[in-house]
Every structure is written in C-alpha cells, then in structure tokens.
Specification:
Blueprint: H1 13-26, H2 30-35, H3 46-56, H4 59-76, H5 86-98, H6 110-129, H7 158-170, H8 175-188, H9 192-196, E1 203-204, E2 209-214, E3 218-223, H10 226-238, H11 260-272, H12 276-281
Antiparallel strand pairs: 1-2, 2-3
Helix pairs in contact: 3-4, 4-6, 5-6, 7-8, 8-10
Length: 282
C-alpha cells in the first residue's frame, strides 16, 4: 500500500537553527505551537464588540465610559480589537487631549486620559474573558494611567451656600423640590446617585435615619435632622411615592421620578439668578 504523504528528508542542523531563531524572534517556543488551538476564534472589530461590552456593563460604568467607547469607535471602528498597539493607544490619548474644550476648571485633560485608559482596559478585560485575546496581548495593560494631580476641591463658603439655597427655593418650576434636594445633600453629603436611588422604604422616622445606596454598591445609614425627615415624609405622601415603597422617593408634582437632568436644570438656573460664579464652575 502506497503512502499518500511523501517521505520528507530529515531536517538539517541549519534548518533547525533557522527555525529556532525564527521562533525566538517571534517570542514563541515549540510548546506554544503544540498548545495552540487548531481553530482560532474570529476577532471582532471595535464597532461590533463595543455594543457587546456596553450591554454587559453596569449602568454607572456604561454612563461613564460610553463617550470614550464612542470615541474609540470613531477612530478604530473598522479595526479588529487585537490590532492596536500600546503606541497607538498613546497616540489616541494625545489626539483626544488636543480636541478637549478648555475650561477654567479643567485639569489639563488628566481626567479624560484616565477615563479613556479605564474604558479601554474594561473593553480588553472583557475580551480576555471571552477568549478573544490573551492577557499578554492586552495592549491597554501596557499603558500607564497619568498620575493624578492634587485635588482642588474645597468646601463652599457659607455665604455662597446660603445664596444657592435661596435661589433654588425661590425660583424655577418646582422650588420646593429643589430646596429638598439641596437640603438632602447638605445634611448627608450623599452623591447624586444616592439621592436618586433613595426610596420611601429607606426612611426610618423613629431613629431619624435614612439608608443611602451609593457608588460601588455601598450602603450606609445616615442620621438626618427631624426637619429633613419630616420634609422627606411629606414629599413622599404628597407626590404619590408612598404608593410604591420600593420606588424612587424624589418626584415631580406629577408623580414622575426625577433624573440627573434635574440637577442640570438647578445649576443652570443658579447661574442665571445672581450666582455668576456658578457659571465659572460649570
């Protein structure tokens, strides 16, 4: 019986040496060739893969990273996710910084650069989990985040805080709501997300405590004044929030829940009413 595969001559020493040199230059070993799967997974483009990553991300993560994923799609949409190198990522960061709008409160693009790298790392971490790339082939890991400059945050002066409360409580289409929102933040120092997530069942009138659910799935019990507690209870009863104890507490007169847009409206209005310094911080 004849053999379909013709006999091959034994490789020469020169051939073996050439093969070893080639493998060395590629950063591979003979074991890598034996362990490699016969069929490789098709690597998607950024345009195809970003929606998959976004769909599996938490709402907060998606909200923070979506603008950066959109920028990646704009620049690299048709490229496979395994194509960009660390050098190309650094160039993308430089291009992004050159396009930033300069504001008085800006920090030289440090925050945008940090968020872009974090958005890329999130995407490539998911690609590792999906078996599309290896950890060693992850280019985002090889790009360092910029060192954070010292914080410029400081407390708002009492006179300006009083001005903010006065304007919010006497202007706009729902001053009672805006005054309550500000009072909640002043007393509890809660984040915007914590206020929006507050529910009627989070109120403990007997102990004057509210339960705040904030960033990173953290929950804390926060003491509040009897005055704020009574205002929250009254708001709950007057605006139909009591009908759904597990639903959002802060609502419009119609009973509709407020969103992040209410905060935009408050600060825009403050800038229009005797608070020009607010505009400088927007």
């Amino acid at each position: 019986m004849s053999n379909d595969t013709p006999d091959r001559p034994n490789p020469s020493t020169a051939d073996l040496d050439a093969a070893r040199i080639l493998l060395s230059r590629l950063g591979l070993t003979a074991e890598d060739l034996l362990d490699a799967p016969a069929a490789r997974v098709a690597v998607p483009t950024f345009r195809d893969y970003i929606p998959i990553v976004a769909a599996g991300a938490r709402p907060g993560t998606r909200r923070v990273y979506s603008s950066y994923w959109n920028r990646i799609d704009k620049h690299w949409g048709e490229r496979r996710i395994d194509e960009p190198t660390p050098s190309e990522i650094r160039q993308l960061l430089v291009d992004m910084q050159s396009e930033l709008v300069i504001r008085r409160s800006g920090r030289g693009g440090h925050s945008a650069t940090e968020h872009m790298i974090a958005a890329l790392r999130c995407l490539y971490r998911r690609a590792e989990e999906d078996g599309l790339i290896t950890a060693a082939a992850n280019p985002a890991k090889k790009v360092d985040k910029p060192r954070r400059p010292p914080s410029t945050r400081r407390a708002v002066a009492d006179t300006r805080l009083a001005e903010i409360v006065q304007v919010a409580a006497t202007t706009g289409d729902d001053p009672a709501l805006d005054a309550l929102i500000l009072r909640l933040h002043i007393e509890t120092a809660c984040r915007r997300g914590g206020a929006l997530a507050l529910r009627p069942i989070d109120l403990d009138p007997d102990q004057c405590l509210i339960s705040l659910r904030e960033k990173g799935d953290t929950t804390r019990s926060q003491p509040v004044s009897p005055t704020l507690m009574s205002q929250l209870l009254a708001h709950t009863n007057e605006r139909s929030a009591a009908a759904t104890p597990g639903g959002p507490l802060l609502r419009y007169r119609s009973g509709q829940r407020i969103t992040r847009r209410r905060y935009d409206y408050i600060w825009t209005r403050l800038g229009q009413h005797e608070s020009p310094w607010v505009v400088e911080r927007l």
